[in-house]
Amino acid sequence: MEIKYTFGIATTKNEKKLILKMLSSLQKDLISSKIRNFEIIICLNNYNFQTKEELLNFSKLNIKLNIKIITSKPGLIQAQKQIIKESKSSKDFIIFYDSDIQIKNGTSKRFINFMEKNPSVIVGTGDQEAVKLESFSYNVYNIIGLNPQLMTPRKYIIGKDFAIRKEKYFVPFPMISDDTFLSHTTVFNYGKDSLKVVKGACVRYIGPKSFKDYYNKIRRLKLEREKMYKLHPEYKSLKNYFQKHWINREIKKLTKKEKIQLALQKIITWICFKTSKLSKAETWVNLNTTKDERVFI
Q1: Tens digit of pLDDT for each residue in 86-121?
Q2: Which of 37, 111, 160, 227 is most buried, judged by most C-beta within 10 A?
Q3: This model's pTM is above 0.90
Q4: Per-residue confidence (pLDDT) for residue 16, from 0 to 100
Q5: 107 within 8 A of 202, measured Cβ to Cβ
Q6: CATH topology of domain 5-291
C-alpha cells in the first residue's frame, strides 16, 4: 500500500492519558473525512516504559491507523526532525499535531486539500480554540484565546496544528520551540504568501490555569524570540508584520467582568515580560495545568 500522508505527533512529556484520547480524536477525524493511505508517527522522548506500552497496545488494537512509534533525543525539535526522517509518505508535506489537543472533525482533510492545491505555500497553519472553563483566573490568563475577535488575525504558525513541506523544515540549535522560528524563517526566505492560515482547520486546547504556567508560557516566548533575533537579527524586520493589534470596537462589546479580566491580563503579561530573565529555570518548562482531560469533553 502506498502511503500518501504522514501525521506526526511529537510528545516530549509523559502524556499517556492525553495522547490516547488525542489519537481517538484523530481517528474520528480521519474516519469522518474518509482519509486513507496514511501513517501516524509518534515520536517519544522523556517518557517512561508505561507510556510506550500503552501506545503499543493502542496501536495493536487500531491497526488500521498504521501507527509507528519511534524515539529521539530530548526536545520537540529533535522529535519533529526524526518524524520527518522516518516519514514514508509520497506527498511532500507532513501534518504535525500536539499530543494534548482535540482535533475538530474535518481538520486533517482541510490541511491535505490546502497543501495539495497550493504548492507554493510552505506552511499551512491551523487555528486553535480555547476550552471554556468556569474559573475567573483561567479566563484572565486565556482572555484572548477565548475571545480571538479582540485582536487582528494572526499571520504566524500555531505549533499545535500545522502542515509543512518536509524539505523546508529547519529549526537550528539552540531554539527549542517550532512556531516562532518557523514563522519568521519561512516568511523572510520565501515571502508572505508562503505561510497561510488554513481556513476551518482547528484544534481545541486548554490554556494555563495558574500564574506559574502563564508566566512560563510568556517567558518561553520572550526568550525564544530573543535567541532567534540573536541568531538572525534580520528577522527583526518582520516584527510589525507578525504583530497583532487590539480591535477597540470588539473590546467595547465585552461584559464588565470580561473587561476587568482583560485589564488584569494586560498587567500580568507586562509583569511576566519584564521579569522573564529573573528566573533561572530552563526555558522549556512543562505547563502542568494545561494537561487536562476536559479538553476532550
Answers
A1: 999 999 999 999 999 999 999 999 999 999 999 999
A2: 111
A3: yes
A4: 72
A5: yes
A6: Spore Coat Polysaccharide Biosynthesis Protein SpsA; Chain A (3.90.550)
Strand 93-97 to strand 67-71: parallel, antiparallel, or no bridges (unpaired)?
A: unpaired
pLDDT band at 15 (very low <50, low <70, confident <90, very high): low
140-193 pLDDT, tens digit per residue, is 999 999 999 999 999 999 999 999 999 999 999 999 999 999 999 999 999 999
Bond preceding residue 119 cis, omega within 30 of 0: no
Distance (Å, whole) CA 206 – CA 133: 9
Residue 60 has pLDDT above 80, yes or no: yes
pLDDT at residue 33, rounded to an integer: 96
